Amino acid sequence: MIVGGEPELALLLHIFPEGVEELDGAYAVYADEPPLGFDVVEVDDVAEGWEDAWRSFHHGVRVGGLWVGPPWEAPPGDSAAVVIDPGRAFGTGAHPTTRLCLELLQEVEPSSLLDVGCGSGVLSVAAAKLGFAPVGALDVDEVALEVTAANAAANGVVVDVLTGPRPSELAVLNIAHDVVERMLPGLPVERAITSGYLERDTVQVDGWHALTRRTLDGWAADLLELRS
Hints:
By secondary structure, this protein is α/β, with parallel strands linked by helices. It folds into two domains: 2-57, no CATH class; 84-226, Rossmann fold (3-Layer(aba) Sandwich), CATH 3.40.50.150. The protein contains six helices and 13 strands. It has helices at 6-15, 50-53, 96-105, 122-129, 142-154, 177-183, and strands spanning 2-3, 20-23, 26-29, 61-63, 66-69, 80-83, 113-116, 135-138, 160-161, 170-174, 191-198, 208-216, 219-226. Strands 9-8-7-10-11-13-12 form a seven-stranded mixed sheet, with helices on one face. Helix 4 (122-129) links the parallel strand 7 (113-116) and strand 8.
């Protein structure tokens, strides 16, 4: 059991897609091994059948004209469905940073796109559904690339799994604040949607300026532009 509050709950759902349950003011996470780096109060075995019961923690979310959800839920008929099976890679659409990125993607003109730190591929698939092309996905985790390719195929969209960045008009980086600042100068793009950090954080990279900022539940996302 892990002690925490609402922001922690959103983060835990992002990290432990198998399931998170609120119990007596703390959170229980479902995982094969005890989580590292958390204040673990108690570790218990769970009853048989938890492999299917964890599905009750995952529900679709509506973000503008998009619906992001698991394959066992039926999407509304008036939205573009992004079906993501929670599993081996981060990214189900539930975390505020993912939702903020999805909002900003719907506010810009579709163009070529590079998804840096693609995780489950939720942003790559959503971008392809919104008309962005070509869409390239990049991650240091080979499992994430495999999951992204599988999710793209399941959604009937084309996402190119890349081994390195390629020139694109827009990048999306839903990763840690320090990683955003470190990677942004080396990307062959002129605009970027960045997130994965708290509202108190701002992206400080020479030549890059914020055009739009969105916040949700203490998290933030920015639309940035490179200016000479």
